[in-house]
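Bump. Still looking for tRNA 5-carboxymethoxyuridine methyltransferase structure tokens.
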Amino acid sequence: MSTSAKDRNFDDIAGKFSQNIYGTTKGRIRETIIWQDLEHILSTYPKGKSLTILDAGGGQGQIACRLAALGHDVTLCDISANMLDIAKQNAVQSGVQLHYIHSSIQDIAQHLPEKVDLVIFHAVLEWVSDPQLVLSTLYQCLHDSGTLSLMFYNYHGLFFKTVTLGNFGYADAGMTKRKKKTLSPDYPRKLEDVQQWLAELPMTIVGKTGIRVFHDYMTNKTKQQEAFEELLKLEQQYCRQEPYLSLARYIHVIAKK
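Sorry for the wait, here they are.
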């Protein structure tokens, strides 16, 4: 599998994801907001139409399973064999069938039997060293008029959080990671760069959403759980509005080919 040595493979910490990401208040907010956007994407297609969907870097398959349960034909690709094993277990527990491809994103086109209606690419762009190559590859996987659901770790949100925490040295150093093999992304992305890369393919952005526009900035962390429903309501209310959108921890972009 051709992938850059700088790209991250999560075989070594696959088990941490359920505990550190999916099973937390931040994970619940992320899942809720993303699913609202995905429901909007699905609503733009004829009702009852079964879409062909590629979940690229789909990890443990939470979203892939939900989409398959709606009757869509879903292929999950991941470079981590351990992640794919967990995804297969989740699919069995969910009572759905998925197609699986063990491959890097860079090589995915040669394993995909045909182009797809929708590509999902969530929380992966910040782990690859050549984002434009990866986006170009995914572009080639899409039918004409196909849709890309792209979520990435937001540089500006990270910078804002870093300064508010008083980590001035880290900010001055360009927020270069000191420790490798952690769950903190290697290459936070700037929205303006992502927009430029998509425009060059060319793709047209039709929607933008901030994921966790308030949660990660709360000084009273106990409120994240104690007042979760109130927090979630505010997240849903302001996640597509500026200036909150641009300071979110993640940004979800919907683009059309």
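Residues 13-256 form a domain with the Rossmann fold fold (CATH 3.40.50.150).

Edit: fixed formatting.
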